[in-house]
Design goal:
Largest sheet: 5 strands, mixed
Order of helices and strands: HEEHEHHEHEHHH
Low-confidence stretches: none
Shape: globular
Radius of gyration: 16 Å
Strand order of the largest sheet: 1-2-3-4-5
Length: 178
């Protein structure tokens, strides 16, 4: 697991006002402003809707950036779902002290074919995934929230701030789904 990818996802949740605990390649996130019952039914969450759809969650970033998560990939690499096994879920329950939590996977992308995309989503839901976020949503969500004239303590956010300050991200690029 790429620690850089985990840090990007961590910063995404922090900048969206979540408390975040990192344990190895998992993130435990808590949104204290979340109102129960507020959550919508979307499986694939855009970065802009994270705060209104997630209260507590265990988040697993998968940084295989050159892969699309096709049904074949999901079948060939069952370790993607290891964080859903009993020992990990018990640890998650302890962290959230009995409160409900979602299981979120952060992946590079889904297949372009609608049929393969739907099959991948079906497999993830069957395995216990509640929500899916793509890295492109995470990165664009971070870029959108970064202010070019603000100094950040996080090296991830500071790099994005410098790039934004020097015009590497235009307003139009920030709205593209990559």
């Amino acid at each position: 697991m790429s620690q850089a990818s985990v840090e990007i996802v961590r910063e995404f949740f922090i900048i969206n006002n979540f408390f975040v605990l990192k344990k190895e390649d998992l993130l435990f996130v808590k949104n204290t402003l979340f109102t129960r019952g507020e959550s919508g039914g979307k499986f694939i969450l855009p970065g802009t809707e994270i705060s209104s759809n997630v209260g507590n969650a265990v988040v697993k970033p998968i940084s295989w950036h050159t892969m699309k998560f096709t049904p074949g990939v999901l079948s060939k690499f069952p370790e993607i779902f290891d964080f859903l096994k009993k020992p990990c879920l018990e640890e998650s329950r302890k962290y959230f002290k009995g409160e409900d939590f979602q299981k979120i996977l952060v992946i590079p992308s889904l297949p372009a074919s609608e049929a393969l995309k739907e099959e991948s989503i079906r497999i993830m839901k069957e395995r216990g995934i509640d929500r899916l976020i793509t890295f492109s949503s995470v990165i664009s969500g971070l870029i959108e929230k970064i202010e070019s004239r603000h100094v950040y303590l996080s090296s991830v956010n500071e790099v994005l701030r410098v790039l934004k300050f020097y015009g590497f991200f235009t307003e139009e690029e920030q709205n593209l789904p990559f």
